[in-house]
Amino acid sequence: MKMFLTFASVLLAAVMVQANCPGDMEVVNGKCYLFGMASSKADAQKQCTDIDPENHLWIVNDITEMENVMAHFSKKLVSPWAWTDGIRSDTIEEGHNIWAWATSGNRMSYYPDHPSQECAGTCVTEDCGNNEVGDCATMSMSGTGERSYQACACDTAGLQFICESPDEVSWTCPEDNGFFASGPCSDLWYNCFNGHATPEYCGDGLVFNESAGYCDYPENVDGC
């Protein structure tokens, strides 16, 4: 009986430490993402940051992230385009503007469906279907399922968007490594590694118990 109770306690703690995304965001491979419809890229960005000011539109880092996110939201796709964080920069090389991620300033280098090809900021197609071509990058999917970046006018209406939570926030870790509450009786906590803070969220009705190192019921946390 004692062994069963110990196992149950460990299982409960493991379940409680799972992060819960803010607003309507959903967990995909350990990060929070939001899928929605917008009247423009600015509207998409606003919907994204209204949930958390540090959120940003999707930055596609690699094939694993792209496959996981696209597979998760595939049943919700009603148009072939979704806004990303990509923009046309002022940098010109060989007569072409370089495309970059607006949040980080890094070049858009991962080429959808061509993982072995490094495009170094030149992998956005000057096309947006029947819509006006412009300075904002969308993730597009053809009728055969092939993904690509396409350049759409930033005020194009009726396109979807993908928003994601930040990988790191400007929060000062009390120690370089550990789990820390954001404040008293809060469901937001930070996973600190080498001084870098990643935001996490407790499940509904739970707050972070810093002394225990996991999400807990408020009555088990001092001061709640």
Topology order in helix (H) and strand (E) letters: HEEHEHEEEEEEEEEEE
* The CATH homology group name of the largest domain: Mannose-Binding Protein A, subunit A
Query: What's the main sheet like?
Result: 9 strands, mixed
| CA radius of gyration | 20 Å
Cα(first) to Cα(last) distance is 31 Å
Strand content: 25-35%
- Counting structural domains, the number is 2
Instruction: Name the helicity range.
Output: 10-25%
Rounded mean pLDDT score: 84
Helix run count: 3
CATH class (first level) name of the largest domain: Alpha Beta
Q: Any low-confidence stretches, pLDDT <50, length ≥5?
A: 1-19
CATH fold call of the largest domain: Mannose-Binding Protein A, Chain A
What is the global morphology? elongated
Number of strands: 14
- Return the structural class: alpha+beta
- CATH architecture title of the largest domain: Roll
